[in-house]
Amino acid sequence: MFFYLYPNLLYQNNTLISAFCPESGAEYLLNCRKGKIWYFPAQKAGNPLHCADEKVYNEINVTISFVILYTSYIIHHNRGIIMKKWIRIIIPVCAVMVLIVACINLGSIFMEYNRGVQEYKNLQEYVKEEHPQIPARPEEEDDFLVPEIDFEALKARNGDFRYWLYIPALEVNYPVVQGADNEIYLYRTFEGETNSAGCIFLDAGNSPDLTDRNTVIYGHNMKNHSMFGSLKEFLQNEELAEESPYFYLYTEERAVRYRIVSYYTTVSGSDTYQSVYTDEEYDGYLKMTLQKSQYNGYQEEFTEGRPDMVTLSTCHGKAGGTGRFVVHGVVDEIREWE
């Protein structure tokens, strides 16, 4: 990620410059006046839900941009003048110091990322590839994926543990928790550590037994593709959901396979996140999701009988914005543990 610096207005001893990040769309206004620098967002920040790591990168790059800007400012206002010796020394010294601080901050981010990745990798030790207690169907080739999961051990580590989520197409393989509200696990991992990766979590308003008509599960859109950071690959590769159209939720009682029927971009607070109770509401909700959908593999037979739905949600677009990307799946098959 990097910033473009370009002048907006030059007048007297004031220099107003925009710093624009083309990757995230973030824009800042930097005002130089009498040797001092102020900066402020060019527009009011939106809901920061699931965009924490983007904001950290922006802060580091804005800091580096300040160094470049301040150096340019000094040179601009001293053209044609032999700069004093102390000025020639202090400018590069300050630049190096700020760069060192930025590098330290960046290093701490990567260390935090690695701690989160390692924690969830360790949790996968409680999940084995195949569970012998659910028999395969003898009459046909069986592609229903059923791992062996130590639910007791996972609940012992975190009493908020509800399910295990697996998306084969993306290798998303995480525990799902549910807090008393939707803020608890934004920046708290499964083991209770503070981390920008947070945890995959079930909406606090949903029933934990998957009996709601629409169950919503949230996860951060991480830059290293952990958590729900890889969910956007469905948008980037249209064939991905065609080749592997299922995801799974494993509970203590059963294994549930969901068939992807829709995915699209939306905004926080949209109708996507409304509650669904009656058949009429279900039909209206399904119609809405299909109208917005960017997935072309839907068939009417997938939703015959109004199967319960799960919505996977993560942030999308510029840092701090209200953009969201969601994937809808409906119950395709349920197998009880024996």
Highlighted features:
single chain, alpha+beta, Sortase, Chain: A, 2 domains, four-stranded antiparallel sheet, 14 strands, disordered N terminus
Question: Summarize this, please?
Answer:
The chain has 338 residues and is an alpha+beta fold. It is 28% helix and 27% strand. The protein has six helices and 14 strands.
Biggest sheet architecture = 8 strands, mixed
CATH superfamily of the largest domain: Sortase
Based on Cα principal axes, name the global outline.
globular
Mean pLDDT: 77
CATH architecture assignment name of the largest domain: Beta Barrel
Distance between the termini: 51 Å
Number of helices: 6
Write the element-wise H/E pattern from the N-terminal end onward. Answer: EEEEHHEEHEEEEHHEEHEE
Q: How many domains make up the 3D coordinates?
A: 2
CATH topology value of the largest domain? Sortase, Chain: A
Helix content: 25-40%
Structural class: alpha+beta
Strand order of the largest sheet: 8-7-11-12-14-13-10-9
Strand fraction: 25-35%
**Count of DSSP strands:** 14
Provide the gyration radius in Å: 25 Å
CATH domain class of the largest domain: Mainly Beta
Low-pLDDT sequence parts = 1-50, 131-140
